[in-house]
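Dig into this one:

. . .
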Amino acid sequence: MTAVEGFQVEAARRMFAADVASRLLGIEIVELDAGRAATSMTVTEQMVNGHGITHGGYVFLLADTTFALACNSHGQSAVAAAADIRYLRPTRAGNVLTAVATERARFGRNGIYDVTVSDSEHRIIAEFRGDSKTIRAT
């Protein structure tokens, strides 16, 4: 990583440091590089729905946070323009979820990112796709 890339990635770290919701859920950065990010989160009893499985909103939030890190890793402020998720298998309290975001394309002010969420046994539990749009820094 060059010094410029390192500076740009630091902008994503600063964004994450100000993300109260993600930090309160215990999301941690595992990896951060230009166009790529990985995070992890332990599912708590408070994250389980009435079926005894992880509420999909928490899985989405983990994927979305990872997407945000990846699309903000180029030093430009970016937000989600669209996102969707496919849930493939359930998890339960105690599972450690890992999300890995990979940049697929960047063009103009737009970006496309895929995020794979896996469980403690490295099984894929969800696939997320996010479209980003760069904005003026506030």
In short: The longest strand covers residues 96-107. Residues 20 and 26 are 10 Å apart (CA to CA). The mean pLDDT is 93.
